[in-house]
TrEMBL record, chain A:
It is found in: Cytoplasm. This is Sarcosine oxidase subunit beta. Transmembrane segments: none annotated. One of its GO terms (cellular component) is cytoplasm. GO terms for biological process: tetrahydrofolate metabolic process.
From TrEMBL, chain B:
NCBIfam families: soxA (TIGR01372). SUPFAM superfamilies: Aminomethyltransferase beta-barrel domain (SSF101790), FAD/NAD(P)-binding domain (SSF51905), Folate-binding domain (SSF103025). Residues 172-430 form the FAD/NAD(P)-binding domain. Residues 516-596 form the SoxA A3 domain. Residues 904-989 form the Aminomethyltransferase C-terminal domain. The lineage of its organism: Bacteria, Pseudomonadati, Pseudomonadota, Alphaproteobacteria, Hyphomicrobiales. It is an enzyme of class 1 (oxidoreductase). The keyword Magnesium does not apply. This is Sarcosine oxidase subunit alpha. GO terms for molecular function: sarcosine oxidase activity. It comes from the Bacteria. Its EC number is 1.5.3.1. Belongs to the GcvT family. Gene3D superfamilies: 2Fe-2S iron-sulphur cluster binding domain, sarcosine oxidase, alpha subunit, N-terminal domain, FAD/NAD(P)-binding domain, Probable tRNA modification gtpase trme, domain 1.
Automatic annotation (TrEMBL), chain C:
Keywords: Oxidoreductase. NCBIfam families: soxG. This is Sarcosine oxidase subunit gamma. It comes from Shinella fusca. The keyword Zinc-finger does not apply.
From TrEMBL, chain D:
Pfam families: SoxD. It comes from the Bacteria. This is Sarcosine oxidase subunit delta. It is an enzyme of class 1 (oxidoreductase). GO terms for molecular function: sarcosine oxidase activity. GO terms for biological process: tetrahydrofolate metabolic process. Keywords: Oxidoreductase. Residues 94-119 are annotated as: Disordered. Its EC number is 1.5.3.1.
Length: 417, 997, 182, 119
């Protein structure tokens, strides 16, 4: 693989960039693979990369219905953080954050991981109790997360309105300085390029239509729009469509898919230095390298596989954004869109074996999938290779819904009393 | 005169009515009705902006919202400043201040222009390949540089003083676009009697009639016909005509978002007027008459100021009376551009030549060109241009090579053909279909009740457009049950039918060339960038878009998408439909946040709920805290008191004398009906059959999964009537939860639920002197301990008004909760206060309430529990009926992980050093020296300084807590480790004798 | 015994709106949340002296007393003369649930040629004459709160909401009225 | 924003008045205290999450207050129909699986037999 570097770019500049080769190969599918990964998003492509890099398994195909990164990888607001509450969550998100920190160098692809800090605003006594619980838990787990006074919060994010007269005055904030953002497309492309370079087959525009199983019940391959492709192991990581794919193997999951909406403003000169989140008023905002304000909105209330949603979801979020940052009322929304998120009852992901032999699943990342990409992919690769979960992912298994061992990050945020 | 390039006798503006504005500090004259673009052009200004990446000088390309180059900063005053405004859309008003963007120090000399020289280095996607070493430099060095270079306009820095309005509206037929097609459709629908809303983004209706002078409808000049028709429609009571209004989003079930610009064109707007008005329209049927947008030609250096769309030049001449140049060239691939040349020529402008890359231009226009003596170079192309800040010449060559000839010009008009505006159609989730014959994407499969008419539907020809519009209007009216009115008929005539058109790169900009032939102007995407993307394996149009940023600028690809596709299809050698089209997303053009939130700001952002006693509390110095939507009195500091002092005083006073507390925000639900008790049995863990009328019980409600959902004291008023209380934040969801089970699981039960949260003002009076305070105010209730024991409820009168008086306590003291109809709350509170104060009682807030209940180990759901806690974890086993065979949560409670050893249980914590108050949320460990990640046993849920105990107290969820009584555990803080002892949760009056005090 | 406590309405002293749409707080009234099955309607109608409506979005009025259909077994009764509705219900002697909500709700009157427009600033109901004629009533939303909209007259609307939401409702209706009146 | 037909109000109203209630026709076991962990998991957690036809619950919470059911397509978000709580799962011609096609003309009976009481 041609190494990317400033020198390579300079050399190509001299000759009109004629020398660049495709970032990944687009081969015809083989008859059979050791592993077929269903879903060409960051998680799937990453898992393929780590299978090849760390487990020496290279007879692998990533099968994507549309185009690489066309699902939630390319539709999210790219927030990265690891300041979760429960051990199971901290384990996987911190593992992920550590990988983010070296990802550009590991992949030789600039994914623009930008640790500009993620600040979560506290608006009342209850928020404060909840966030400080996070701060303490994170500290003892070895994760950076600190409590800021309102003034410290404003110093870190000058556009913030910390006046006491605000409808929901800010009484502090939790800041994870290592949190930030990354370039979503680059994550998919970088993994695809590095995986392809290690022999992984990347097959786009290939829809999985069925999962074939042998007499012993174990999987034998997938029926696709390009015909049957054999596989010793099948790993499903098709966010937004996991229920549909898994149903092909008669596996029912505790998932419901709902549209999650987001929007960007017109590009403007740098004004917003970090990522700000406010759970109480439902606002998530940062500014992209192009200058757009990137704003995460909420989910629609009903199951849907359409990547669109209602205008009221957008306006509800902008209400909050303009309350926190009154100077943004004259800013313009340039584009809104939606992605399909697979949500579990406890809002934590599922990664593990399934009742079907040699069929593995990675799903239910809800609205948090992007930040988990490298960690999830890395641990998913371990699961696929070893047939059992890595200890950092051992809490995410499917059986918890039977035993009641839920990892309820949502409930832990509790409710106002 | 308002500008040297204004041609007397041309255009529709009134020379007398002038307005003054400044551009980059220089003052210019304009005519009323001018746009910023037309006014600048009238004054000979073409250089208006700089491009995003290369900072190339840019001029005015279009006369509409598709403008990618001429984006300016417009302000009325410091706080009313709007970046990224489209100069061809923004109308001039007297005194407006216009500034160019993305340049430093000046528009004419921009340091950023260096990027243009460096451009070979900045090829598409270059940043993915570099800036990776050294590791830290991306964040510290490269990224800040890139961010600063990007970003166009400067964000507003002051709060927007303007206000915005909103309106929900319904109609039978919504017509988007008031050109020939839209007006015809609206007219037919309106005449049939349908409720019609007609919207157009321009100040006046007419669409293409703004520039096309050759059109006659019913013998009338086209533009005049349009205005007359609009006037007629406005006069009809079943029609609403909205101009300066953009249909920006087409959502589910024919829900369409409109934004109406109300004051941005006014010099001195009435302060009452909203700046913009958001219309949320639900239409039974929608007619899309959104027209089409002219494409530019893709050739070397096609971006110099002075190079613009042919139809734009026509608009500036025929509507604004402005000649965009004195010696213009035309470069086209279709007939429509010829008419621009004709109009300019007739207006006295020199037309250097019409360069047509087709061998065979349309007969009609060719003949007319000859007649007017305009040189037509068929089969030729413009292969390059010159001119630093404005185009000065074009070099023209025969197709397929040959020497280029340079022709001096001061403006170049181009047209590659027309792109139907299928944006709204696509937003409606309709599927477009590619028409290979004309090289256009047209509405294919419809997903909602709408129809496209006119050029957005690929309909060419005036008469055909009129008839399609009329037919659609009539059809949609009929579909909504309106058949009135006679048949509307209109006849139109115009000079020429247009043929031709191309997509993709032209001569000299093809494969293997490295010239800058711009596809997306604003984002500086050239034909070669598209090809590079393909070379690097980006074969999906979405990949190409994201890799090159083609179509991602503020115009969202209105001009660039089709060219980008064509260039990709050429190198991939796959026909256009196989490569696909990027998704069209709302909004059609950018919409201000202000319009979208409209009224939701300040007091109307989110309702602040206040209790009937709020005014009294405010007057008595209460500090408030937000609990859900409620503002609750937190504590009542006296002069000089800190929060700590005040809370200590309040705590002391309640236990030594008494305290008065506003408990109105607690949720209340009245459960009424013969099966009320049975329903309560199913909703709560407790048993309710044995509860006698007049008595109360503390109840716990679970979710089906066995975790605590809510709690509260329930009073039984009679056999068939319960007064249920919930947590403050829980009230709405508990009501919903109960209704859910009642309606869908237990519909056989004869019981009804009514929320009475706000019917009652609730005043808690707690403490040894509580009864003494209340007794004189009560009528018809025997207050003696025997007649009215702890956990009872009585109905009677209080201060002469009906009351539900509860004998209950959340403090551990003898106490009462006085419920009176809300409007009496303040008066009753004052009456109680009048007796309480002299007896040494105080008013106390939620903080003191929290401390006092913690001293007794009473939990607060949502603070001491978090949705993962069972009644057993919370030491509330006594409240879970062992007899019942069913209640919500009964099965969830039995799941393996909910009954296993070592679950987190609620216990008390006492710090070894009684002066140390733990931090709520602090984590607890057994071994303070364990390296990270440490094993956390649980966390502190409640922690206070207890004045009554003279020490700190705390409650905590601790793994296996019940079995750890007396154990020493540790709370590691950043600066120190705090040793604590596990204890029970009752810190005051363990026997509970004071309750009956 | 103590003096009779004085009543203080949540919107006391407010006024707003425009010439085209006046926004004013309604006078105090007694209110009942009535729940009952079809079999009880006859007796209850007799008790209240008006026929409880059984069609969606309709109401019945008699002498300042209104019965608004809110749901298939739910009515909001309003008596502008403050009659004791609880007592009347008790007299019906049939199975039902009557809960006094006189103080839970408060009402805002919106009147004038642009009244509908004022309400449409935050209410997603179709208020067109054909869909929401005189006498129509429905529970719905206004901005971020729940309200009951009732149209007693051609240019008169009564907006009922819970008391703590009434300042919000009043503020939004006033802004809407100003805009609608322009 | 959806436009939802409420079978009790007998007209279409804005989604703003409604609260989604999850999957329809999932009856709470009458012997819930005695079911197995697996049965509880199936009842409370596992869902079809179909791409296409879904039967779901809605509550007209800011309208008539009633829960009701609706058949909707989760791709187009178009409603096929709404029906009152307790009514059997309807057969949507051309959409429902053929296996659910009513056997006799006497649709009601067939449903009572096959579906039991709907949620």
């Amino acid at each position: 693989m041609r190494k990317y570097s400033v020198f390579a770019v300079a050399r190509e500049a001299m000759r009109g960039h004629k020398g660049w080769e495709p970032q990944w190969a687009s081969p015809e599918p083989r008859k059979e693979y050791d592993v077929i990964i269903v879903g060409g998003g960051g998680h799937g492509l990453g898992a393929a990369y780590y299978l090849a890099k760390e487990h020496g398994i290279t007879n692998v195909a990533v099968i994507e219905k549309g185009w690489l990164g066309g699902g939630n990888t390319g539709r999210n607001t790219t927030i990265i953080r690891s300041n979760y509450l429960y051990d199971e969550s901290m384990d996987i998100y911190e593992h992920s954050l550590k990988l983010w920190e070296g990802l550009s160098q590991d992949l030789n692809y600039n994914v623009m991981y930008s640790p500009r800090g993620v600040m979560m605003l506290s608006h009342n006594v209850h928020d404060k109790q909840s966030f400080q619980r996070h701060v303490h838990a994170n500290r003892l787990h070895g994760i950076d997360n600190e409590w800021l006074t309102p003034q410290q919060a404003k110093d870190y994010c000058p556009p913030l309105d910390i006046s006491a007269t605000a409808r929901y005055p800010i009484n502090g904030a939790a800041l994870q300085r290592r949190g930030g953002t990354a370039r979503h497309d680059a994550v998919a492309w970088g993994y695809a390029r590095a995986a392809s370079d290690r022999g992984v087959h990347i097959i786009q525009n290939c829809e999985v239509k069925g999962i074939r199983r042998g007499p012993d019940g174990a999987v034998t391959g997938v029926e696709t729009s390009k015909g049957f492709i054999g596989a010793r192991k099948i790993a499903v990581s098709a966010s937004g469509h996991n229920s549909v794919i898994m149903a092909m193997a008669d596996v029912k999951l505790p998932l419901h898919s709902v549209p999650l909406q987001a929007l960007v403003s017109e590009p403007m000169k740098p004004i917003f230095p970090c990522v700000v989140m406010s759970n109480s008023v439902h606002a998530y905002i940062s500014q992209s390298d192009k200058g757009e304000l990137v704003i995460g909105a909420g989910t629609d209330q009903y199951n849907s596989y359409s990547q669109t949603g209602g205008l009221q979801i957008i306006t509800h979020t902008l209400d909050a954004i303009c309350e926190l940052f009154p100077m943004f009322r004259r800013v313009k929304m340039m584009r809104q869109w939606g992605g399909i998120t697979d949500n579990t009852p406890d809002r934590s992901a599922i990664q593990g074996v399934t009742p079907v032999q040699n069929l593995f699943v990675n799903c239910g990342w809800g609205t948090g999938g992007f930040k988990a990409t490298p960690g999830s992919a890395h641990l998913f690769a371990h699961l696929i290779a070893k047939g059992e979960p890595h200890k950092l992912a051992s809490g995410l298994t499917l059986d918890r819904f039977r035993t009641g061992r839920l990892i309820d990050e949502a409930a832990a945020a509790a409710v106002a009393h | 005169m308002s500008g040297a390039n204004r041609i007397a006798g041309q255009g529709r503006l009134t020379p007398a009515r002038t307005a003054r504005f400044t551009f980059d500090g220089k003052t210019f004259d304009a005519l009323e009705g001018d746009t910023v673009a037309s006014a600048l052009l009238a004054n000979g200004v073409h250089l208006v902006g700089r491009s995003f990446k290369y900072h190339r000088p840019r001029g005015i390309l279009s006369a509409g919202p598709e403008e990618p180059n001429a984006l300016v900063d417009v302000s009325r005053d410091a706080a009313r400043r709007q970046p990224n405004v489209r100069a061809p859309v923004q109308e001039v008003f007297d005194g407006m201040k216009v500034e160019s963007q993305n340049r430093f120090p000046s528009l004419a000399f921009d340091i950023g222009g260096i990027n243009n020289l460096m451009s070979p280095f900045f090829a598409a996607g270059f940043y993915y390949k570099t800036f990776m070493w050294p590791k830290a430099a991306w964040e510290k060095l490269y990224e800040p540089f890139i961010r600063k270079a990007a970003g166009l306009g400067v964000a507003p820095t002051e709060e927007d003083p303007d206000h915005y309005a909103s309106r929900y509206a319904y109609c039978d037929v919504l017509v988007a676009g008031a050109g020939v097609a839209g007006l015809s459709a609206a007219l037919a629908a309106a005449e049939a009697g349908a409720r019609v809303i007609l919207v157009d983004e321009q100040p006046e209706v007419g669409g293409a009639l703004h520039y096309d002078l050759s059109v006659k409808i019913d013998g009338q000049n086209g533009y005049d016909w349009a205005q007359a028709t609009a006037a007629k429609l406005k006069a009809m009571e079943n029609v609403t005509v909205l101009t300066r209004t953009t249909a920006f989003g087409y959502y589910n079930h024919n829900f369409v978002g409109l934004v109406e610009r109300v004051t941005d064109h006014l010099a001195r707007p009435d302060r009452k007027l909203p700046r913009e008005r958001l219309w949320q329209v639900r239409a039974k049927r929608v007619i899309l008459a959104t027209g089409s947008i002219e494409r530019h030609m893709v050739f070397a250096n096609n971006d110099r100021p002075g190079i613009m769309l042919a139809s734009a030049a026509r608009t500036y001449l025929n509507h604004f009376g402005v000649a965009v140049g004195r010696k213009v060239g035309v470069y086209t691939a279709n007939d429509s551009a010829y008419e621009a040349a004709f109009d300019l020529k007739r207006a006295g402008v020199t037309v250097a030549a019409i360069v047509d890359n087709r061998e065979k231009p349309g007969e009609g226009v060719l003949a007319e060109a000859r007649k007017l003596g305009i040189e037509v170079l068929a089969g030729h192309s413009v292969v390059d241009t010159k001119g630093k800040l404005r185009v000065s010449s074009m070099s023209v060559a025969r197709n397929g090579g040959g020497s280029a000839r340079s022709i001096p010009i001061d403006a170049l008009l181009m047209s590659a053909g027309w792109t139907p505006s299928v944006h709204l159609f696509s937003q409606s989730r309709g599927k477009v279909a590619y028409d290979a014959a004309t090289g256009r994407f047209l509405p294919g499969t419809y997903a909602q009740d709408c129809l496209s008419v006119g050029s957005c539907n690929g309909t060419d020809g005036l008469q055909a457009t009129i008839e399609e519009g009329l037919a659609a209007g009539e059809l949609m009216a009929r579909a909504t049950g309106h058949e009135g009115g006679g048949k509307v008929e209109l006849s139109g005539e115009n000079a020429f039918e247009w043929t031709g058109g191309m997509a993709g790169s032209g001569e000299g900009a093809g494969v293997d060339t490295t010239v800058k032939a711009f596809v997306d102007f604003q984002n500086d995407v050239c034909a070669k960038d598209i090809r590079l993307a393909v070379r690097e394996g980006m074969h999906s149009i979405e990949h190409i878009k994201r890799f090159t940023t083609n179509g991602m600028a503020t115009d969202q690809g209105k001009l660039s998408n089709i060219h980008g596709l064509a260039i990709a299809s050429e190198v991939l050698n796959r026909e256009i439909p196989k490569i696909g089209l990027t998704t069209f997303r709302a909004p059609y053009t950018p919409v201000t946040f202000g319009a979208l939130i409209s009224h939701s700001r300040g007091d109307l952002f989110d309702p602040a709920r206040k209790t009937p006693m709020h005014a009294w509390e405010e007057a008595h110095g209460a500090v408030f805290e937000d609990v859900g939507n409620w503002k609750r009195a937190w504590y009542y500091p006296r002069s000089g008191e800190t929060m700590h002092d005040a809370v200590n005083r309040e705590c002391r006073t309640v236990r030594s004398a008494a305290g008065v507390f506003d408990a109105s925000t607690l949720g209340k639900i009245e459960v009424v009906g013969p099966d009320a008790a049975e329903f309560m049995n199913l909703m709560y863990t407790n048993g309710w059959d044995t509860l006698k009328p007049g008595r109360c019980r503390y109840g716990i409600m679970l979710r089906e999964d066995g975790f605590i959902y809510d709690d509260g004291v329930v009073g039984r008023l009679s056999e068939d009537r319960f007064h249920v209380t919930t947590t403050t934040g829980g009230a709405p969801r508990v009501m919903h939860h109960m209704e859910d089970y009642l309606q869908t699981e237990f519909p056989h039960l004869k019981v009804w639920l009514t929320s009475t949260t706000e019917q009652w003002a609730v005043i808690a009076v707690q403490g040894p002197k509580a009864r003494e305070i209340l007794e004189p105010l009560v009528e018809g209730i025997d207050m003696s301990n025997e007649a009215f024991p702890h956990m009872s409820v009585r109905e009677g009168k209080f201060c002469g008004v009906p009351t539900r008086l509860f004998r209950m306590s959340f403090t551990g003291e003898a106490g009462y909760e006085v419920n009176v109809p809300a409007d009496y709350g303040e008066a009753v509170w004052e009456a109680i206060w009048a007796r309480a104060e002299p007896l040494g009682a105080c008013a106390y807030g939620t903080e003191t309430m929290h401390v006092l209940r913690a001293e007794k180990g009473y939990i607060i759901v949502g603070q001491d529990t978090d949705g993962t806690v069972t009644p057993y974890d919370a030491s509330l086993a006594w409240a879970v009926s062992k007899k019942k065979t069913d209640f919500v949560g009964i099965r969830g409670l039995k799941r393996p992980d909910l009954v296993k050893e070592g679950r987190k249980q609620l216990v008390g914590l006492l710090t070894k050093d009684p002066k140390v108050v733990l931090e709520e949320g602090a984590q607890i460990v057994a071994d303070p020296n364990e390296p990270k990640p440490m094993t956390m046993l649980g966390h502190v849920t409640s922690s206070y300084w207890s004045e009554n105990c003279g020490r700190s107290i705390a409650m905590a969820l601790v793994a296996g807590g019940q079995a750890r009584m007396g154990q020493t555990l540790y709370v590691p803080m950043p600066d120190r480790t705090i040793a604590v002892e596990v204890s029970d949760m009752v810190f005051v009056d363990k026997e509970g004798g004071r309750l009956n005090g | 015994m103590a003096d009779h406590a004085l009543r203080k309405a949540p919107l006391a002293g407010r006024h707003g709106g425009s010439a085209g749409a006046r926004v004013t707080p309604a006078a105090p009234a007694t209110r009942l949340s009535l729940r009952a099955g079809a079999d009880a309607l006859g007796a209850l109608s007799a008790a209240f002296g008006l026929t409880l409506p059984t069609r969606p979005k309709t109401s019945a009025s008699a002498g300042g007393r209104h019965a608004l259909w809110l749901g298939p077994d739910e009515w909001l009764l309003i008596d502008e003369n403050e009659a004791d509705l609880m007592a009347l219900a008790a007299g019906a002697g049939v199975l039902h649930s009557a809960v006094d909500v006189s103080h839970r709700n408060t009402a805002i009157l919106v009147s004038g040629p642009h009244a509908a427009g004022a309400i449409a600033s935050g209410c997603p109901l179709d208020l067109g004459n054909a869909i929401f004629p005189v006498g129509a009533a429905a529970r719905t939303v206004l901005g971020k709160i729940e309200v009951v909209a009732f149209r007693p007259g051609e240019e008169d609307y009564r907006v009922e909401c819970w008391r703590s939401f009434s300042p919000y409702a009043f503020g939004l209706l006033s802004e809407g009225a100003e805009d609608a009146g322009l | 924003m959806l436009l939802i037909y409420c079978p009790y109000c007998e007209e279409e109203r804005s989604e703003l008045e409604f609260r989604h209630g999850g999957d329809a026709h999932i009856a709470r076991p009458t012997n819930i205290a005695d079911i197995s962990d697996a049965e509880f998991e199936d009842y409370f957690f596992l869902r079809d999450n179909p791409k296409g036809l879904i039967f779901e619950r809605w509550r007209h919470i800011h309208g008539c207050g009633r829960f009701f059911n609706a058949a909707r397509d989760t791709v187009s978000d178009k409603f096929y129909m709404s029906y009152k709580a307790g009514e059997p799962k309807p057969y949507i011609p051309g959409v429902s699986p053929a296996s659910e096609k009513p056997l006799s003309e006497n649709v009601g009976e067939t449903y009572e037999a096959t579906e039991g009481t709907a949620k």
